[in-house]
UniProtKB/TrEMBL annotation:
Residues 21-131 form the U3 small nucleolar RNA-associated protein 13 C-terminal domain. It is found in: Nucleus, Nucleolus. GO terms for biological process: endonucleolytic cleavage in 5'-ETS of tricistronic rRNA transcript (SSU-rRNA, 5.8S rRNA, LSU-rRNA); endonucleolytic cleavage to generate mature 5'-end of SSU-rRNA from (SSU-rRNA, 5.8S rRNA, LSU-rRNA). GO terms for cellular component: 90S preribosome; small-subunit processome. The lineage of its organism: Eukaryota, Metazoa, Chordata, Craniata, Vertebrata. One of its GO terms (molecular function) is U3 snoRNA binding. Keywords: Nucleus, Repeat, WD repeat. This is TBL3 protein.
Length: 131
């Protein structure tokens, strides 16, 4: 019977998730946005990523700070953010943040590198009607 082992693994995963969420909260409070973005992306939490982006944009020089943080993300993280911003862009409350992130990606990524992103074709098709 492996039920007990599976329950322990589930408990450990849940505890790890709680620890990561607490760490994310601390990072936001400390205004360590790059780490907060990376952690929110790794947790696959689009709304939390949006919250981090909004917090960055509220800062003085917010656009510049957003650019600095987005540029420093890894390629896989940028792909995840692109997928998230497609959803954000469909809502008028979040479209400005989505457009700011998209502008940064378009400005700092070469067209050839953007074409290498997974899901770029569907993302562009979804962005066009709302942009």
């Amino acid at each position: 019977d492996v039920t007990e082992i599976e329950e322990e693994e589930a408990q450990a995963k849940q505890e790890e998730q709680i620890m990561k969420e607490q760490e994310l909260s601390n990072l936001l409070h400390e205004k360590r946005y790059l780490k907060a973005l990376g952690l929110a992306i790794s947790l696959d939490r689009p709304h939390t990523v949006l919250t981090v982006v909004k917090a960055i944009l509220k800062e003085p020089e917010g656009r510049r700070h957003l650019e600095e943080n987005i540029v420093r993300l890894r390629k896989d993280q940028k792909e995840a953010v692109l997928a998230f911003l497609v959803t954000w862009n469909t809502n008028s409350r979040n479209c400005h943040e989505a457009q700011a992130v998209m502008e940064t990606l378009l400005k700092h990524e070469a067209p050839d590198s953007l074409l290498q992103f997974s899901g770029i074709k569907s993302a562009v098709e979804a962005l066009l009607p709302y942009t």
